[in-house]
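Narrative of activities, Objective 1.

The group set out to show that a structural description can be obtained from nothing but a protein's sequence at a throughput compatible with the screening campaign. Below is one input-output pair from the validation batch, recorded exactly as produced.
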Amino acid sequence: MNHPKSRIAGMLTHQCPVCRESSIYVNPRVYTFIDLGKMHASCPVCKTNLVPETGFYFGAAYVSWGLTVALWVSVLVALKVLDALGWIEFGFLTHPATFLTVGMVATIVFFPYMFRVSRGIWAYMFVKK
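Output recorded for this entry:
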């Protein structure tokens, strides 16, 4: 099968893990909170079963946890770089409120995307035709 996207691009754009032509979500827009987790039961294009069993996507919580840890490490690195450039004053032990505030804001802003990407990564690991 000729795939229009790579596996990584398919994961990041929430495409079907088999055909990579259709979104696995009913509403492909990420920041629509009403339909955030609503998925197709099967791919509209290739008819692959996207929900092989009840509770299948509970395992995506582990992927989401890993993405959240990566986000918080990225926030810490960004704050340390901004401190090294002299743009802000930041020390992990001397300015914990800055780290927590920026980390929480980043988590809230990126939550919908990380939620969907974690399910997409989980589907790419386990859903096969």
